[in-house]
Amino acid sequence: MKNMKSIKRTFLTLTIISMALTITSFAQDREKETVIAAPAAPFTYQGKLTVGGTAANGTYDFIIAIYSEPEDGSLLGEPQTIEGVQVVNGIFTVNLEVETGLFQRFETAYLDIQVRPEREGDFTRLFPRQQIGSTPYAKIADSAREADLLNCSNCITNSHIASGISGSKISGPVANATNAVNATNATNAVTAQNALNAVDLTSDQTVGGDKRFTGSISSDGGFAGDGSGLTNVSGTLRWNVVTGTSVTASPNNAYVATNAGQTVITLPASANPGDVIKIRAQGDGGFRISQQAGQQILASNIPKNSLVFTPRESNRGWTSITSSADGTKLAAVSWGGQIYTSTDAGVTWTARESDQEWWSITSSADGTKLATVIGGGQIYTSTDAGVTWTARAASREWQSITSSADGSKLAAVVLSGQIYTSTDSGVTWTARESNRRWVSITSSADGTKLAAVVENGQIYTSTDSGVTWTARESNRNWTSITSSADGTKLAAVVLSGQIYTSTDSGITWTARMTDANRFWRSISSSADGTKLAAVVLNGQIYTSTDSGVTWTARESNRNWQSITSSADGAKFAAVVYNRQIYTSEMSVSALPATTAGTAGYLTGEKFSTIELIYIGGGQFVAVNATGNFEAY
């Protein structure tokens, strides 16, 4: 939302000097066809920076990202922030790390560069993007005349052999000749004329007599192996990875669907009672279980989680929303508008205070104590659920505010400023930590554990109500952070990045939603930290019931700005900039049976897992299901 403020920028230009690459090439005395090699990685990038047409001198900070296209395109890897680069007469040099194999997977790539004087103001993006080339070209030979230069494997075929080869000239193991005993004139070592004890296994037959196995057979008479060639064996479950979009299942087999599109898995035409089929959706498209004639899936054992969002209030420049612990009292603020409060879980709303550039709002557990901040203005507090308000602190570029459960301890952050804490419900404030580009802060229920994030910086945590702070995780473009009531479980989101969670008060972090980077804007947590909800700018709402391990997409693509939840994680409220407020409550019901026959089917979203047991009469019973499903 920083585009709502007037930001003065200095015009910068960039000239490429070179991209220094280390390339090794070789040539051999043979006929060859040459191809252009990809650039080396990592590589050194050198450019010339000018300010207003004059060569720059001094220390500058850079943010450099690699994209697949000169405009828009996909982000290839994470942006790299390089601080304190010396620029002399416009010339600078930076070393860029890239993902292994990046240039082998993409034929072209472009550098997207942002720059600013060291730790001064916002970054300026330079246009156009700079194409990454291969300099010099490395050439490789892909064919050779002399076989003795090759490590030959499968390079001699039947066509190369004009006549028979004497057995005395063959040494080492011979493929497909294993267990041949005195076999002369043997064809494929299956029907072997003149071979001792040869049995013709090319057709279905009963092998009579006492055929005993000796040698490597185990002492209990069992066969050794992994059973990979066996199917339809009761009591076993073989896993199969399905990379395509369709497969017909076999009884007593399990399937992992990995395709980005929906994978259709058709039930087997015949099965025996007790046979099992298990399916896991690992790809974005999930799966669809299709039925054959006379078949049906009984799905009453599967819980169906319903989360329907209802639009509330009017279209406004909503920027932030907060909730009481029970979810009945809500408060939201709008940029250039008023504060709005609700006491009926968002059904009706009352306008409060005056038009201001309200930016963030927080609430006590009972919803009676509220605190909100103005970007470029003051902090305002209320002790009567928002009916009346008192201005606090000085005017600053406030970005976020958080509250303890009783509303007595508050903490707020300033963009390019400090962290401020209060122990008297906002009457007095104390400056903490250093000047940084703070964008979001969260608190435990007792206000002792705090966590805050820095734009293009790190996460910082405190266990003494903000007196001292410790830097955590890496430099990322963090946008929002949330905490469980006890402060042990944290979750934070990155703009054009991933979701990160911690179960040890921020000491260590795990990346979630690794399949895709999204423009995450805000995240909220239940009191126990198991239920999370996050929103995406011009994207969807995502919810998790397992502390962020798996996520389910909700609602439609909108310009979501902020989300909040009740303490039990059952009620959510989210706001859309220049649109409405949306509220929801989770309900759980049993999934119905599918329609019998080929018209019926069952779908599962990504990360859903289901096990089906055949009970006869064409019916499969769904058991041990996790995730989100729909029956049709």
- The helical percent reads under 10%
Mean pLDDT: 83
Give the spatial strand order of the biggest sheet. Answer: 18-19-20-21-22-23-24-25-26-27-30-31-32-33
Instruction: Give unreliable regions as ranges.
Output: 1-13, 15-38, 135-150, 180-196
Helix count?
Answer: 1
Question: What structural category do the secondary elements indicate?
Answer: mainly beta
CATH topology term of the largest domain? Methylamine Dehydrogenase, Chain H
Taking the sheet with the most strands, its summary is:
14 strands, antiparallel, barrel
Q: Between the first and last Cα atoms, what is the distance in angstroms?
A: 42 Å
Tell me what the CATH architecture of the largest domain is. Answer: 7 Propeller
Morphology call:
globular
SSE map:
Elements: E1 12-20, E2 43-51, E3 54-55, E4 58-67, E5 80-87, E6 91-96, H1 102-105, E7 110-117, E8 124-131, E9 186-187, E10 191-192, E11 238-242, E12 246-248, E13 253-257, E14 263-266, E15 276-281, E16 287-290, E17 296-298, E18 303-323, E19 330-342, E20 350-363, E21 370-382, E22 390-403, E23 410-422, E24 430-443, E25 450-462, E26 470-483, E27 490-497, E28 499-502, E29 510-512, E30 518-525, E31 532-544, E32 552-565, E33 571-590, E34 601-604, E35 609-616, E36 619-626, E37 629-631
Parallel strand pairs: 11-13, 12-14, 13-15, 14-16, 17-36
Antiparallel strand pairs: 1-2, 2-3, 2-6, 4-5, 4-7, 7-8, 9-10, 15-35, 16-34, 18-19, 18-33, 19-20, 20-21, 21-22, 22-23, 23-24, 24-25, 25-26, 26-27, 27-28, 27-30, 28-29, 30-31, 31-32, 32-33, 34-37, 35-36
